[in-house]
Hints:
This protein has 102 residues and is mostly beta strands. The chain has one helix and nine strands; from the N terminus they run βββββαββββ. The chain has one domain (2-101). A hairpin with a 4-residue loop joins β7 (72-78) and β8 (83-89).
Amino acid sequence: xxxxxxxxxxRQEKVEVGTIVVLDRIKADKDGNxxxxxxxxxxxxxxxxDASELAKVTVTAEVITDLRGPKIVIxxxxxxxxxxxxxxxxxxxxxxxxxxxx
Length: 102
């Protein structure tokens, strides 16, 4: 069983070949592929976490679609002053499928 822990969008995700992951918006190349930086690689019984060894490892993913996350409502209120602020935010996301771990 081969899997890797990759750094993407300020977080770390555990991925295998065929895994579909939702990440912060990432710009793909002209073929629709991206490369993710591995932090840890597990290949059967061997575990690789050395930076010089991980530099040789490539984790490639195919962009499935770009999407937006759920709306988050931010409200601020101060009593007795008439101060009310209501704002919303939706994160820009990308859904990717892991194609290979070499």
